[in-house]
Amino acid sequence: MAKLAGFNFQQWLEEHKDKLKPPVNNQLIWEDADLMVTVVGGPNSRSDYHVDPVEEFFYQFKGNSFVRIMDEDGPYDVHLKEGDIFLLPAMVPHSPQRPEAGSLCLVVEPKRPEGEVDAFEWYCENCNHKVHRVEVILKSIVKDLPPLFKAFADDEEKRTCKNCGELHSGK
């Protein structure tokens, strides 16, 4: 077994800065660990809500962001200023929003238990009714998510609200 050692996080950020902006926006720090420790950069804008089977810990260490939460009363925002931390319980529909270019957030979550699925949901932009849900056994955020988002954006039937008839923008 190799000797354990830390590393310079600031240097790591500099070496991976190209991955912390669009279109990728995130980078996993360790590949073979029981925790998924990811750095996520801004800007981003998304309309999906992630329903994660595990807790997520957020540390907004540069710039500001917010996590949009969907509950029975509709969406609300949890603002994260630089230096803030936030623990999101499992199974809460959430949509991280990072409007600031150069903002950085450390997100820590356990790997999924065997067979546990992540879900992605979209809600009507007019009445907040759930428009579409897709479940996936998530292996790679970078590889697995773009096809799901594209399939939703390309399908007007999936984007049409059954409650009020509004067509979701698909963004």
Automatic annotation (TrEMBL):
GO biological-process terms attached to the record: anthranilate metabolic process; L-tryptophan catabolic process; pyridine nucleotide biosynthetic process; quinolinate biosynthetic process
Gene3D superfamilies associated with the record: Jelly Rolls
Coiled-coil stretches noted in the UniProt entry, renumbered to this chain: none
Residues annotated as binding substrate: E56, R98, E109
Residues binding O2: R46
Reactions performed catalytically: 3-hydroxyanthranilate + O2 = (2Z,4Z)-2-amino-3-carboxymuconate 6-semialdehyde
Binding site for Fe cation 1: H50, E56, H94
Cofactor annotation remark: Binds 2 Fe(2+) ions per subunit.
Source domain of life: Bacteria
Top-level EC class: oxidoreductase
Keywords associated with the record: Dioxygenase, Iron, Metal-binding, Oxidoreductase, Pyridine nucleotide biosynthesis
E.C. numbers: 1.13.11.6
This protein's pathway: Cofactor biosynthesis; NAD(+) biosynthesis; quinolinate from L-kynurenine: step 3/3
UniProt-annotated binding residues for Fe cation 2: C124, C127, C161, C164
MF GO annotations: 3-hydroxyanthranilate 3,4-dioxygenase activity; ferrous iron binding
Required cofactor names: Fe(2+)
Entry keyword annotation includes Metal-binding: yes
Pfam families per the UniProt record, alphabetical: 3-HAO
Protein role: Catalyzes the oxidative ring opening of 3-hydroxyanthranilate to 2-amino-3-carboxymuconate semialdehyde, which spontaneously cyclizes to quinolinate.
Assembly mode: Homodimer.
PANTHER family according to UniProt: 3-HYDROXYANTHRANILATE 3,4-DIOXYGENASE (PTHR15497:SF1)
Protein family according to the UniProt entry: Belongs to the 3-HAO family.
Protein's recorded name: 3-hydroxyanthranilate 3,4-dioxygenase
